[in-house]
Amino acid sequence: MTATEVSVDMLIEKISVQYRVEQxxxxxxxxxxxxxxxxxxxxxxxxxxxxxxxxxxxxxVPQTAADPTAQTAVQAGPGTPSPQLLAFFxxxxxxxxxxxxxxxxxxx
Length: 108
Description:
45% helix; alpha+beta; elongated; two-stranded antiparallel sheet; 2 domains; 4 strands; 108 residues
């Protein structure tokens, strides 16, 4: 197998993975748009952590003589979020099921 053939095979695999991921997200959006909560929930495993952190997007940097109004965007760090951070939600598999149940009863 030549280097070109390997490169083409890698590109095909990359495109294939991208396509599968896109299809997963399209299906997920469709299930949520249609209110098919149980079907959406069935995509997950019990190890699920359904987490959405509260983010601060802008942090003021100390003023400098060159630019007294300097500000910079703050990026979230890599890895698992710190338990000290605030979250809009931080649900386990069971807690997500309970959230879905409340949605279906109209009490959410």
